[in-house]
Design goal:
Length: 307
């Protein structure tokens, strides 16, 4: 099976045979390296997955990752190609995100029903106020991350404004109409999780449930109303009330100065949060992680600080 051209362009060392696997299929990955490499698998928190199977792979060889790491269970993993004797900090190429997804329906059998494999990526914002880089929470919001990446790769966010700014609270974008009502023409399910809405966290905007003002969780029709609009948090003292009620899906790793500029502009209409001179997203690019562009150790460190 041929790789999707975009995916093929991202990989330089680890080449999966496809992006989706049935649990009964071998999870075949070709090692397209110039030298023998050691494959290292960790969970998304960076804990290494041990195996008794040899993990040194010669150039051009295809291996079954599930057979190599039989301890894999439901969850999110990162696969690295590392020169022999080196650590994961010295990886080559682009790591792979491997998600073993279970069936969450009541009464469903245990175990994976499907496996998804993607390149480990970051989002690079170029805005009229400066640049920002965000790393994704693949482990707790996989569908939201996939939706955001798909929209970004299609150019959806290029040219859109940060149309809403609530000082010391959030800045918001992703609306092609720039009036809080626009979206991609579809809605995605909520993936509320334990990642806190700290400064620099990206989370999905959705319709507000009137019952939330009474302390209730949003009802499904409101919880599952996100599409393309997202916001970036400015101050957890103010955004703490959003924790576990909105889908946090990424974290800024660089560009806090840019975020500050976006969040401190003069407001033209306080009722809508429209800035007098809205900041524009010139481009939003999804970039593969490489040894020179790897913010995930910082992301994991921030996540550990939340506990």
């Amino acid at each position: 099976m041929q790789l999707i051209p975009l995916i093929a362009a991202l990989f330089s060392v680890l080449m999966p045979s496809k992006n989706w696997y049935a649990p009964s299929e071998p999870l075949n990955v070709k090692v397209d390296a110039q030298q023998t490499v050691t494959l290292v698998l960790s969970d998304f928190q960076g804990r290494r997955i041990n195996t008794d199977v040899p993990t040194d792979v010669e150039p051009g060889k295809t291996v079954d990752i599930r057979a190599m790491f039989p301890a894999m269970r439901l969850g999110t993993y990162v696969l690295y190609a590392v020169p022999p004797g080196k650590t994961t900090a010295d990886f080559v190429g682009t790591p792979l995100v491997i998600e073993l997804r279970g069936d969450k329906r009541p009464g469903a059998p245990a175990g994976a029903i499907v496996i998804r494999v993607d390149p480990l990526c970051v989002a690079k914002f170029d805005t009229t106020a400066g640049e920002m880089t965000a790393a994704f929470y693949y482990d707790v919001a996989p569908n939201t991350v996939a939706n955001f990446i798909s929209l970004a790769n299609g150019g959806f966010y290029d040219g859109l404004l940060f149309h809403r700014v609530v000082p010391d609270f959030i800045v918001q974008s992703g609306d092609p109409l720039a009036d809080n009502s626009g979206g991609p023409g579809y809605e995605i399910g909520a993936e509320f999780n334990g990642r806190l809405h700290l400064r620099g966290v990206l989370s999905m905007a959705r319709e507000n449930d009137p019952m939330e003002s009474q302390g209730a969780m949003p009802r499904p029709e409101f919880a599952n109303s996100a599409g393309s609009q997202f916001f970036i948090c400015l101050n957890h003292d103010k955004t703490e009330r959003l924790d576990r009620k909105y889908t946090a899906f990424a974290q800024l790793i660089s560009g806090d100065e840019t975020l500050q500029k976006i969040g401190s502009g003069e407001i033209a209409d306080a009722s809508t949060g429209r800035p007098k001179e809205p900041v524009r997203i010139n481009s939003l690019r999804i970039m593969p992680v490489t040894s020179g562009i790897d913010p995930y150790p910082t992301l994991l460190e921030k996540a550990s600080e939340e506990k």
